[in-house]
Design brief:
- The complex is a heterodimer of chains A (about 525) and B (about 350).
- Chain A is built from 23 helices and 2 strands.
- With about 525 residues, chain A is mainly alpha-helical.
- Chain A has a domain of about 230 residues: Orthogonal Bundle (MetI-like fold), CATH 1.10.3720.
- A two-stranded parallel sheet of chain A has the order 1-2.
- Chain A starts with a helix and ends in a 17-residue tail after the last helix.
- Chain B folds into 2 domains: about 150 residues, D-Maltodextrin-Binding Protein, domain 2 (3-Layer(aba) Sandwich); about 140 residues, D-Maltodextrin-Binding Protein, domain 2 (3-Layer(aba) Sandwich).
- By secondary structure, chain B is an alpha/beta fold.
- The chains are: A mainly alpha (about 525), B alpha/beta (about 350).
């Protein structure tokens, strides 16, 4: 519905704004957006797939630690990392100041320094935040790969490198593409990080039309244009899945390659560097700011924020996953064009910039509230209520939940369901004894993913929350909008730490089961 | 399995409890409802103070200006909001333009707020004032070489100027005022000159801009006074100073944070009483000092810290101009290549 409301904006022509954009900034916007999408796409693929392959296939010091720790950046909101990175590498930041102090001859007055606000830094920043999507899925796929194929390839004399490109990678392709699409949708929707770097993209143009030109209509039109890009991405995903049906089951783990000690430690150093840049350094920097601010932020209010954040995260996650479950169930039972299209539309909300989707939701809610008021003369039930906010999260994040749940469903063999029908058991019994245990890994992965995303969510929370229902993200907004970054450090750090909890649960669950094929967001063959 | 069931039921119970406490909070009812874009830290103590003094309860929600105005517009007559408090006159102008605010006839407000800091039709009133002016490196710049915003476009500042992004409403308002004073053509020339003089890409906030001046990346910039105040409070020895721009012409560009009564307010008397209270000396000092701004009420003295920046002549143009010329200013800056 919110998507529909946005598309309706086309009925009202905003030619002037379009003309202006086309005359001045449109080409730059498109180029920038392209740089971002291509850069982040390539980056998350290299980092996500590469790291996943390393931790699953090569033995080196600290491998088991890195296997889990590499998911940590997932808990880091993009806008937080962006700020810390810029602060670190800009002219006035510690790195360049250090260089000027240590080598005045090289970096002193004659050296004009360089600006931290550069495209490659934006891309790097988003890559570091979004690669875990690909990493998580690729890793599960690598763990689940069937050793028989690799053995066969080796017997046939295929070199190790070729085995990776011709066997391992194609087998993991659906999982990798699914992760890539999630990462790119997040990239397109991102506003916080790009605006910290002052990097103009399609999304910033949407905000500019709305905030600067006071033209919500044009903003909505731009937003629905963005949706076309998203549909392209979805087509890419389908293409990525291909026609192949990947039924994988391996009960034995592959032996990991042993490399020389020197190379092993080199890998450890490389991974430590990546992890430091993406997680350790930002957390330390936040800690330092918190330290400077003293403990003034720890008060009654603070625990209210924490409790609201957790309650909304868990509540929204449970609700969203339940609905994703229903959707997946419907697709399984009544496979057809209608359910397929319904599932696609339901998941569109993920790629829209948060505020734009929030406004779409706002208009829908107000319409419903009006209707309810007219017919039942009730007070507004959606605007500014907990129910409304949970529904908004549902719309935004159902795409995140749908993937793993759908993948879990694909693992249910139809014959099992048929067998239960011949047995004289109640539906409740089937649900409890068959569905729940078999779907549990997929469902819990979905719950944890949605929970992390909901807790980081900012614009919809701001616009639709009940009076006084502030969360950590709202607090961060309040501080940063006044330019008080140091004071935002405490809620930001807390948000990262709270997000770590589900990330850790997510990681703990995986490797123990050998039937890891049902893992993660691997989409089922259609 | 059993443990899992227990955990799930415990979580469900806790969630239900959360919802219940949320619902048992009184619905808007008698309380004064405020939509505001001002920071929680600044206004919550003010609201608490008012409740303590008068017993009137206040409920509020915070968000970005544009989001609040869109929400108010969409809610229409069903909106629970009584007051809209925002920064930048442009936002208040827009709300009034969309008929979301109604005129208030109040002798107290008219006396307290100078005519150029409120809506000519009395639909909104300034509460605090902030100036946007020039800062310079006290190490590398002789203040006598500074004069006006326009002069920063001169070649002597080539490679020495730092600016914040044109997406920030403060710059949009500044350029809107310049269009009003100097005309669009001359303003566009000036903005182009600024862009040519930039030492580096534009910044996303005033604070990092000033840090760049301190670190030596550039020598002059344009910022809001309260950011300067904050920086000086944190590091008093930083080699950066304030210069009052346009003293020999139109005066320093000022803007307001302000408040307006919503068209569909359910508690108009209470709301007006609160507006009047905000213009009283105690509340004015609290608000202005809390964010290092100037009180809108000229009879109230700014704090010693702020007064130390020196007397200045402010532009006496009505701040509403920031609103009706804002879209024009945005397009002009796009054309001039100011990002």
């Amino acid at each position: 519905m919110p998507v529909l409301v946005l598309s309706l904006a086309w009925l009202d022509s905003q030619g002037e704004v379009w003309q202006h954009l086309a005359d001045t900034v449109l080409s730059r916007l498109l180029i920038n957006t392209l740089i971002l999408v291509v850069g982040v796409g390539v980056g998350v693929l290299l980092l996500g797939v590469g790291l996943a392959w390393l931790v699953t296939s090569v033995e080196f010091p600290g491998r088991r630690f890195f296997e889990r720790a590499l998911m940590l950046p997932f808990a880091m909101p993009a806008y937080v990392l962006a700020f810390v990175m810029l602060e670190t590498f800009d002219y006035a930041g510690p790195v360049q100041t250090f260089l000027r102090d240590v080598w005045p001859s090289l970096f002193g007055a004659s050296f004009s320094g360089f600006s931290g606000r550069q495209p490659w830094l934006v891309v790097l920043c988003l890559v570091l935040v979004f690669y875990p999507y690909v990493y998580l899925l690729a890793r599960s796929a690598f763990i689940a790969r069937n050793p028989i194929f690799l053995e066969q390839a080796r017997v046939l004399g295929v070199s190790a490198r070729m085995r990776f490109w011709r066997v391992t990678l194609p087998m993991a392709r659906p999982a990798i593409v699914a992760g890539l699409v999630l990462a790119l949708m997040e990239t397109l929707a991102d506003f916080g990080a790009v605006s910290v770097f002052n990097f103009e993209t399609f999304t910033t143009a949407i905000y500019k039309s709305w905030y600067g030109l006071f033209n919500l209509g044009a903003a909505a039109q731009l937003a629905s244009t963005l949706l076309v890009l998203v549909l392209l991405l979805m087509a890419l995903e389908r293409y990525g899945r291909g026609r192949a049906r990947y039924v994988q089951s391996s009960s034995q783990a592959l032996p990991r390659k042993v490399v020389s000690r020197f190379r092993g430690w080199a890998l450890t150093a490389l991974l430590s560097f990546i992890l430091s840049l993406a997680f350790v350094w930002p957390v330390l920097r936040l800690l330092q700011w918190v330290w400077q601010q003293g403990l003034a932020g720890f008060d009654q209010h603070y625990f209210g924020l924490l409790s609201n954040t957790l309650a909304l995260g868990i509540g929204a996650a449970l609700l969203t996953v339940t609905l994703a479950w229903c959707l997946a169930h419907a697709r399984q039972r009544y496979a057809g064009v209608v359910t397929a299209v319904a599932a696609r539309i339901a998941t569109l909300g993920y790629a829209l910039p948060g505020s734009v989707l929030a406004v779409g939701i706002l208009f829908s809610f107000i319409a419903v509230d009006h209707w309810v008021a007219d017919w039942f003369s009730w007070p507004p039930i959606l605007m500014g209520s907990w129910i409304g906010l949970l529904l908004a999260y549902l719309v935004r994040f159902i795409a995140v939940a749908f993937g793993p749940v759908e993948a879990a469903y694909a693992q249910l063999r139809p014959v099992l369901l048929e067998v239960t029908r011949t047995l004289n058991v109640t539906r409740w019994y089937v649900l409890r004894r068959l569905y729940l245990p078999l779907l549990a890994p997929g469902l819990s992965a979905a719950v944890l993913l949605v929970m992390i995303d909901v807790m980081k969510e900012m614009p919809a929370t701001l616009l639709l929350r009940p009076f006084g229902a502030d969360t950590l993200a709202v607090r961060i907004y309040a501080m940063t909008s006044e330019g008080l970054w140091e004071k935002a450090a405490l809620p930001a750090l807390t948000l990262v730490l709270v997000g770590l909890l589900p990330v850790m649960l997510l990681m703990r669950e995986r490797p123990r089961k050998s039937s890891d094929a049902e893992d993660g967001l691997t989409h089922p063959p259609v | 399995m059993i443990a899992g069931v227990r955990l799930v039921s415990a979580v469900t119970l806790w969630l239900a409890a959360m919802m219940l406490t949320a619902c048992s909070d009184k619905p808007a009812g008698d309380a004064l409802v405020i939509y505001t874009s001002r920071g929680d830290e600044l206004i919550k103590p003010l609201f608490d103070q008012y409740t303590a003094e008068t017993g009137v309860e206040i409920r509020y929600t915070t968000d970005a200006d544009a989001a609040l105005i869109t929400r108010l517009d969409a809610e229409g007559a069903a909106s629970p909001a009584d007051l809209l408090m925002t920064v930048d006159a442009g936002n208040l102008w827009l709300a009034a333009e969309k008929n979301l605010l109604q005129p208030v006839k109040s002798q107290a407000l008219e006396t307290a707020v100078p005519a150029n800091l409120r809506d000519p039709q009395d639909r909104w009133f300034g509460v605090t004032v902030r100036a946007r002016t020039i800062v310079y490196s006290s190490d590398r710049v002789n203040p006598e070489t500074l004069s006006s915003y326009a002069a920063l476009a001169e070649p002597q500042w080539k490679g020495r100027l730092c600016l914040r992004t044109s997406k920030k409403v403060y710059n949009q308002s500044l350029v809107a005022t310049m269009i009003e004073r100097l005309g669009a053509e001359q303003t566009e020339q000036i903005v182009k000159g600024w862009v040519d003089n930039l030492a580096t890409d534009v910044f996303s906030n005033d604070n990092s801009l000033m840090q760049a001046i301190v670190a030596g990346q550039c020598d002059v910039g344009i910022v809001n006074t309260y950011y300067f105040g904050r920086l000086k409070a944190a590091s008093p020895d930083a080699p950066i100073s304030l210069f009052w721009a346009n003293q020999n012409s139109s005066g320093v560009h000022v803007n307001i944070s302000g408040v307006g009564l919503t068209t569909h307010a359910s508690h108009p008397e209470k709301a007006i009483a609160f507006m009047e209270w905000m213009l009283t000396p105690a509340a004015q000092s609290f608000l202005a000092n809390g964010n290092k701004e100037f009180p809108a009420n000229p009879t109230v003295e700014p704090s010693a810290e702020i007064a130390a920046w020196g007397e200045f002549r402010a532009d006496d143009l009505n701040v509403a101009v920031a609103g009706h010329r804002q879209a024009e200013a945005v397009m002009l800056m796009d054309r001039a290549g100011y990002r």
